[in-house]
Amino acid sequence: MNLAASVIEASRVGLTFQTADGPVHALKDVDLTIGQGDFVSFIGPSGCGKTTLLRAIAALETPTAGRLSVNGMTPDAARKARAYGYVFQAPGLYPWRTIAGNISLPLEIMGFQRADRKQRIQRVLDLVDLAGFGGKFPWQLSGGMQQRASIARALAFDADILLMDEPFGALDEIVRDRLNEALLALWAKTGKTIGFVTHSIPEAVYLSTRIVVMSPRPGRITRIIESPLPRERPLDIRDTPEFIALAHEVREGLREGHSYD
Fold first, then answer.
1. pLDDT (0 to 100) of residue 236
2. Residue 6, strand partner residues
3. Cα 148 from Cα 79, distance rounded (Å)
């Protein structure tokens, strides 16, 4: 990775939530650099802080310690500069708007002109293989298609960074495999930097250039694993010795994380 082209940098980042039952230490001493064009997956047990870290990058949570920057700016400044798109676990599409209308909404809020909005909507529908579905309503689409529409909405204003919080976690394995393939193809076409939260070891290994393994709370990075796999990855790469060895390394990293007090 070219550190000179880093787009996300975390230095000793900590985040503590104050609750009625006392403080909850969600993140502690997180150090991480994500380079331009990286596909970085965050994996760890439930409650380890991986989603909290992604939300902090997106200025949806505020660290209580350390320093976090996105494109050389604070996360809040990066949000205002529209530096990233964010895809949540659920598609979050408005049922009374068509798919094109849902994709258009952030563009309308940002003040894009009608002709520009129309062009952008068509481009991202093509990117996620939903050309011809812009006039449909969310309830007329399958779960996988709705999630692709959600990705299209995050891509519409052409941010360089795409942050994805378990976007395929609720889908069945066959649909998930198909969307994993589609996401890799989209990444190859756009060259975007992607941060991706997942619970799935095979998904993390299949998609990523680097895998960030996190410990149980307080969330710390126990291991950062560089992938030796080629960027072009057919699904059957999962049967290769290289893939299996990498999955084993991730599994070992997860076990290692449980040694913390």
1. 93
2. 35
3. 22
pLDDT tens by residue, 117-172: 999 999 999 999 999 999 999 999 999 999 999 999 999 988 999 999 999 987 88
Query: Per-residue DSSP letters for 229-251?
Result: S-SS--GGGGGSHHHHHHHHHHH
**How many independent structural domains does the chain possess?**
2
- Cα dist from 166 to 42, 54, 87, 116, 150, whole Å: 10, 11, 8, 30, 13
Decide which of 143, 158, 173 is a domain's last residue.
Answer: 158
Taking the C-alpha atoms of residue 203 and residue 243, their distance in angstroms, rounded to an integer, is 11
Q: Are 248 and 164 contained in the same domain? A: yes
pLDDT tens-digit readout, 198-253: 999 999 999 999 999 999 888 999 999 999 999 999 999 999 999 999 999 999 99
Which amino acid appears at position 39 of this protein? F
How many residues are there in the chain?
261
According to DSSP, residue 209 is labeled: S
Same domain, 70 and 57: yes
Range of the domain at 50: 3-83+160-257
